Predict the structure.
Amino acid sequence: MTAKRLISVVFIFITAVLSSCGLLPKGHKIDKAYNKELTEKRIADSILTARQFNYTWFHAKCKIRMTDKESSMDFTATIRAKKDSAIWLTVSPFLGIEVARILFTKDSVFIINRINKSNDRLGYNVMRNYTDIPVSFYTIQDLLCGNTIYYQAENSLMKRQDTSLVLTSSDEKLTSSVYLNRHYYIQQMIIQSQKADYSLHIQQRDYFIPDKTPFSQNRTIELRGKENVSFEVLFSKLTLNEIQSFPFPINSK
């Protein structure tokens, strides 16, 4: 018997003797239900961390349907990205010519509007016109990856809702809830502002594993607030870790 095993046996024996003699306080009993829940939460958080989608270079095509209170529009997009550096996309109507080109960098959003023949450089604070939820380059990057947004595992609680496991964390600004199915894949995320009636709802479906970690090919993204708008996104032709160029005919530095 190893020394480690011997110590474990002695500890268990002493605990049993003290309990039988009434020398341990009554409140010392282990809450098995609590420990089971805590263990399950730790497992869920560990799997979430392990399944964070990661890339160095990213390339994909997707079909997008955008819907607001007035109309809906279908278009296609090509996306290229370098992690923690840039996200580039072109937007075209189905079977049409390019109408816009967008480049996200850490501090700015550059937009070429082919219809209006305009070039704009915007800060991420422009999103305050649409939502109270803070949006940064890293928020866009997490949306692209399908990773959790503003979820803090160390400050979270867990509950069961129907067939889903729900992990929720809150701070003074936001509540972030992550809904997992029985295989611990993200089904839905809801990010809710604490100060105003703004929220971001994300549904994720049709997972596949292109490079060790799962990626959702079919998503619904809804921004609710002053103006409600939703995006149905269907990814295709995903390529990872091949160097990409970011053609942008205006100064993006």
Notes: Residues 158 and 167 are 5 Å apart (CA to CA). The chain has three helices and 13 strands. The chain has one domain: 50-240.
